[in-house]
Amino acid sequence: MPRVLFDTSIYIKILRRGDTARDRRASAAGASLWLSAVVLEELYAGASGRDLQTVERLERDFDSAGRIAIPTLADWSSAGKILASLAKKYGYERIGRARLSNDALIAASAARVGIAVITANSRDFAKLAEFRPFQWRLQAAPS
């Protein structure tokens, strides 16, 4: 069974609609769904009220299933190297690299464990894939 994880961009769309369990099942049909610890951090950073409770439930559910992808030291190093390569090729200033830091970390850790990233952010993930091959695909959140 293939393994996938949603980037924060997908979860934000799902949270705005409110039915996370149904949406997660529909989006990951036929695949084992994982949660990135980096995505979890991003969700917590932007959550309040009912969304905070939903994020806490996501954490509990994925943790109890043993399906949280947690970056290792090698993932952090890989993410830094990806960002340096992007800066060299595209001339990204510090701000651009900082904006991509979390996505680079998601890409590095997903690649290490063979998990495909599902995202609504093709621009950044396509660039990251130039320097660290990993599986990713563009998908809007289910309607």
Structure description:
- The protein is an alpha/beta fold.
- The protein has one domain: 5'-nuclease (Rossmann fold).
- The protein is 64% helix and 13% strand.
- The protein has 7 helices and 5 strands.
- Strands 3-2-1-4-5 form a 5-stranded parallel sheet.
- β4, α7 (122-131) and β5 (136-138) form a beta-alpha-beta unit.
- α5 packs across α6 (94-113) and α6 packs across α7 (122-131).
- The longest helix has 20 residues, at 94-113.
- The chain is globular, with a radius of gyration of 15 Å.
- The chain starts with a strand and ends in a 5-residue tail after the last strand.
Strand order of the largest sheet: 3-2-1-4-5
CATH class: Alpha Beta
Summarize the main sheet: 5 strands, parallel
**Element-by-element helix/strand order:** EHHEHHEHHEHE
CATH topology: Rossmann fold
Give the overall average pLDDT: 88
* Structural class by helix and strand composition: alpha/beta
Q: Using the alpha-carbon principal axes, give the shape.
A: globular
Helicity range of the residues? 55-70%
Number of strands: 5
Number of domain modules:
1
Number of helices: 7
Query: For the record, what is the CATH homologous superfamily label?
Result: 5'-nuclease
CATH second-level architecture = 3-Layer(aba) Sandwich
Roughly what fraction of the amino acids lie in strands? 5-15%
Please compute the radius of gyration using only Cα atoms.
15 Å
Terminus-to-terminus distance? 24 Å
Low-confidence stretches: none
